[in-house]
Design goal:
By secondary structure, the chain is α+β, with helices and mostly antiparallel strands. It has two domains: 18-79; 103-194, Alpha-Beta Plaits (2-Layer Sandwich), CATH 3.30.70. The protein has helices at 19-79, 82-102, 105-115, 152-164, and strands spanning 120-125, 129-133, 136-149, 168-177, 186-194. Strands 1, 2, 3, 4 and 5 form a five-stranded antiparallel sheet that branches.
Length: 198
């Protein structure tokens, strides 16, 4: 015998569903998405502001560069005039002479000693040439050296050490001479960039 009670009666056309929890979850998701959207919009506006600042800075730097290039071209045209060429060449010569005298030979030999292998001898070295770019002296000099060794592979070691040293730069072997009856050493002439602070 079935007992009938009003609590078991469902007169709705569709069964009762628990939508309140789903609606609350959807509301939370919508709120999170709205917050994310607001954060993204804020970041976009911030990035646009930074990009505008960067563009203004680049424009300022470009204008400064163009001004410096104009000044340099004016100075170059002034220096290259025929009436100024004599004074300019004399100025370059005097600056190079002063820079050569500023090269410390003691320091040159001390720095070479840090890279020279034990079985390589420094036979000779010429007065260093001061490197210049567009008439302006740099902090680099060009050493013209003569070395001797009884084993050619020792010179390869020297070349590696020169290139790895922060004091020396590009090195170029100009000539090499094999041993003779009077001279048992392999002799090499090489030029190397040397960064002594002038």
């Amino acid at each position: 015998m079935n007992s009938f009670s009003p609590s078991n009666l469902n007169i709705a056309s569709q069964p009762f569903r628990r939508e309140r929890a789903q609606n609350a979850a959807l509301a939370v998701i919508c709120a999170a998405l709205t917050c994310s959207l607001l954060v993204l919009i804020t970041l976009i506006f911030h990035a646009r502001g930074q990009a505008a600042d960067l563009r203004r800075w680049i424009e300022g730097e470009t204008a400064e560069l163009q001004r410096l290039q104009r000044d340099q071209s004016q100075l170059s045209s002034f220096v290259t005039r025929p009436e100024n060429a004599d004074v300019f060449s004399k100025s370059v010569f005097l600056n190079e002479l002063i820079a050569r005298r500023a090269v410390s030979w003691t320091r040159v030999f001390e720095d070479l000693a840090t890279v020279m292998p034990a079985n390589v001898r420094l036979v000779g070295i010429r007065l260093p040439q001061v490197a210049a770019e567009d008439g302006t002296l740099t902090n680099h000099v060009q050493l013209d050296m003569f070395v001797g060794t009884d084993r050619p592979e020792a010179v390869v070691d020297l070349l590696k050490r020169l290139q790895q040293s922060p004091l020396f730069g590009a090195v170029k072997v100009e000539t090499q001479t094999p041993p003779t009856q009077n001279d048992p050493l392999y002799r090499y002439r090489m030029t190397v960039a040397y960064a002594q602070n002038l």
